[in-house]
Specification:
mainly alpha; transcription; Leucine-rich Repeat Variant; 2 domains
Length: 298
């Protein structure tokens, strides 16, 4: 049953949705409306355009985000505040995911309002939930594999923000941040951007290397998959490939992750291609879209 598409909402349900959307404009009724609408993301296919094209709704969602800024520094964010703003972020993720609203979402620079949340470093659960939900919005954008998304993200500070989270976030946040980096790298312009200067490449390589060392102590097959795929994609750039021959962590060359990869044939396959690409005189396969991505190691 879970594989069946969500049924279209009936007229009564649609009226409820429009009622909640109208309630977003009223600060007194907004919190409950955010909660109810966030539950409808999967069951109302056109919720994104309904939100975007309704008067005052986007402004109300941005107001929810901006209202949290004072709780970031100093770090006083409560669980209640985090839950409320994350409901607003969930609706923005809905808008970011929809083909009809994605472009205007980018043109309005909405993702930039989330970046202060990605800058936070507090390890408390409200902050971790806030970072993870914010990363989810960016992740929804890059999932589309659209050039417009990558071009937008490369004009922002998303790469250093992701690298920071990849180094010090929770396992789940690290996984989403690494996935975002992977999708950026899979785009030719993203690979060129990261490999354009030594500083950019080395920053990525150092963080990826630290992640491998950390994964050797606390294995995560899901996170390792994205790390390996990032490394693999980097081998499509000749200079990055040459550098990786020198700095790829030994843990990826020996049997450190043999047990972790025992049941993961796809990651084992990506890793074998990565190691083959790094053999002296090896030439990377011609189609970069078939490669995996993984950060570099020091």
């Amino acid at each position: 049953m879970s594989s069946q598409p969500s049924p279209a909402p009936n007229s009564a349900e649609t009226e409820k949705v429009f009622h909640w959307i109208n309630e977003l404009s009223n600060p007194e009724t907004r919190e409950n409306a955010l909660l109810e609408l966030s539950k409808k993301r999967e069951s109302v296919p056109d919720l994104a355009p309904m939100l975007w094209h309704s008067f005052g709704t986007t402004a109300a969602l941005l107001q929810e985000i901006i209202n949290i800024y004072p709780s970031i520094h100093p770090a006083t964010l409560t669980a209640h505040q985090s839950n409320r703003v994350c409901n607003a972020l969930a609706l923005l993720q809905c808008v970011a995911s929809h083909p009809e609203t994605r472009s205007v979402f980018l043109q309005a620079n909405i993702p930039l309002f989330l970046y202060p949340f990605l800058h936070t470093t507090s390890k408390t659960r409200p902050f971790e939930y806030l970072r993870l939900t914010s990363l989810g919005v960016i992740g929804a954008l890059v999932k589309t594999d659209e050039q417009e998304v990558i071009t937008f993200l490369l004009s922002t500070e998303i790469i250093p923000l992701c690298l920071r989270i990849m180094e010090s976030g929770s396992e789940l946040s690290k996984t989403v941040a690494t996935f975002i980096l992977q999708k950026i790298l899979l785009d030719d312009s993203g690979l060129s951007y990261i490999c354009q200067t030594y500083d950019r490449f080395s920053h990525v390589a150092i963080i990826l290397g630290k992640m491998v060392i950390s994964l050797a102590k606390e294995p995560s097959a899901r996170l390792l998959k994205h790390v390996v795929r990032c490394y693999l994609r980097l081998t499509d750039n000749p200079r990055a490939c040459e550098a990786l021959r020198q700095c790829l962590p030994d843990q990826l060359r020996d049997s450190t992750f043999a047990e972790c990869l025992r049941e993961d044939k796809s990651t084992k396959h990506w890793l074998s291609i990565l190691l083959k690409n790094l053999e002296p005189g090896a030439v990377a396969p011609p189609d970069p879209r078939q490669m995996g991505i993984s950060p570099l190691g020091s």
